[in-house]
Amino acid sequence: MATLSDIGVSAGINILSAFIFFIIFAVLRLQPFNDRVYFSKWYLKGLRSSPSRGGAFVQRFVNLDFRAYLKFLNWMPEALKMPEPELIDHAGLDSVVYLRIYWLGLKIFVPIAVLAWAVLVPVNWTNNTLELARQLRNVTSSDIDKLSVSNIPEYSMRFWTHIVMAYAFTIWTCYVLMKEYETIANMRLQFVASEARRPDQFTVLVRNVPPDADESVSELVEHFFFLVNHPDHYLTNQVVCNANKLADLVKKKTKMQNWLDYYQLKYARNNSNRLMVKLGFLGLWGQKVDAIEHYIAEVDKISKEIAKEREEVVKDPKSIMPASFVSFKTRWAAAVCAQTQQTRNPTQWLTEWAPEPRDVYWPNLAIPYVSLTVRRLLMHVAFFFLTFFFIIPIAFVQSLATIEGIVKASPFLKVIVEDKFMKSVIQGFLPGIALKLFLMFLPSILMIMSKFEGFTSISSLERRSASRYYIFNFVNVFLASVITGAAFEQLSAFLNQSPNQIPKTIGVAIPMKATFFITYIMVDGWAGVAGEILMLKPLVMFHLKNTVLVKTEKDREEAMDPGSIGFNTGEPRIQLYFLLGLVYAPVTPMLLPFILVFFALAYIVYRHQIINVYNQEYESAAAFWPDVHGRVISALIISQLLLMGLLGTKHAALAAPFLIALPVLTIGFHHFCKGRYEPAFVRYPLQEAKMKDTLENAREPNLNLRGYLQSAYVHPVFKGDEDDDEYDDDKLGKFEEEAIIVPTKRQSRRNTPAHSMVSGESSPFSGKV
Q: Which keywords does this chain's UniProt record carry (predicted)?
């Protein structure tokens, strides 16, 4: 069990690590040759030029102004200067609202920490329960435990203090959550109303188009929307096609082209030797051939395959999926279509808002809609087994990351680990770093599972992955660490308990594991956040690409890898700290200051990264906030149930029942917020859409919306090859004005209210994605 001295050693190590990271960052960011790595956001916006141009050779690569190095922490106040409205214009609403999650943590936990230390710490400290237990029953405890509820004897009336504080913490948390939900809902509506024109504002994704033997998907969509159901508002459509094989070929060509560029640059620098490459596995063995000639031949070969595959995709009806991006003349019409049921059969002609073009995850559009239910069921089962079978290795690693576990596994290390300093390092640092390393590959696994489920946008993939990551953290990082760690054998006993005994078991174990979570917060939340600002991987990859691949300014821009906020990995980590803070606030307030340091440090670091580095892949207008709110509410309810279990073990029979109302009130509050604020995140008000359409028509009466939308949802592999000719506006006007009733191509009795101009050919108002 870690003591205060062990926590002090761990804090010293992590503070020193963070300080070293900041010093290294301060030196690296000042060097001209790293400018594109640490200020990539400004380069991508075209607002910054390379400082390495001109000047002496040394000055182009090294900053010789020593006064700049004296202000190595100057980036912190600079990151806080940009006001929020300007930051929204600069980085988007998603990035700003993501930062507000950290600010929400500070708003919730600063008052809670002050109140807990002012009230609960004296109540817990002024007892001698643990001291008596140590003398009479040889019970092991530390000074940290004296600050927790463990130091209060059974049947004590002091538990009323913890119950009153639990109510106070709940009321304050709910109040802050409600005000934040209201603020962000208003920010979202204002952002949507004021943002520039985007293709997704006019476009709906239609899926599960029913098959027809006489008409193609494009003709079906045109008939359904243009000629029957939305004759006054339909504009155009882009049929979805399966171009996954073509996309793979394009990626392969890009890879071969990069190798060709590398060898050509290498030969240009030294043309005295012929460059050779082996054709075997990883170039380790096999026939030797001329590298440049080999990759020229490979690029030509793949280019021919791409041309052939592109032609097959365009001409083969089997490559056309029963889905289409349908665009309308107004935002109002798109909102009506996206938010209503199109037919009496709820499984056909399914409509949803189209993601913005850069948010579309194109490979999943080729997945048949009917298979999505099966895929998601399989992933639910797979995630269940991944989560619960992961408990075993995590518990095993946790058991080894203790003094007893190390001595048991490797007796020859006993002399080393019994050293006072090494003992403090192991107990105060090793468990946290072991757990963090063990979870390193989890986000990639969860993202692969989300992609298999068939979500069609990057934002929805990240939200699903984040949801599962949160559940995984709750089960494996929180519950498994609470129950296991010091004793691996406790796991089986815990799993075999009846459900009504589990809250009590966890409640008893929670105060005992406070020191472990303190060390984990310092490793992950202090040193880990400080390490994020170094951008080591993008730094190394940029210089590697800049050395071997870059020939033009465009190549240099593509070599930058600014990354993004990473909602699928960052938000679940934040939610773990919300959970720890709310659970330990009435139990062991000692943990709260460490969480406050995390929220404050992370807010500054990520604000700097969002301003200067990150380039967000998409803009969802903070559509993820209902998930954030729901997970904080879940953490609040979990903390209340665990406190009830803990007080039940303390035989606080008179006090504990008063906690029953807390989960009920919290759930009621959640339903209130869900009904009051969530509609702003899932529906687009028709009033807002109409107002925006009216303003746009007044400002740009001659806007060619079809020209703006016709290639917006073309598959990226077709970009540059599609026909850019605009449609004939006169023909369109004539087409809309006609009201002649003529039969369609289909062998049915249904007539269309307008003359079909396609008559056996592909529609001029549609295209292939």
A: Calcium, Ion channel, Ion transport, Membrane, Transmembrane, Transmembrane helix, Transport
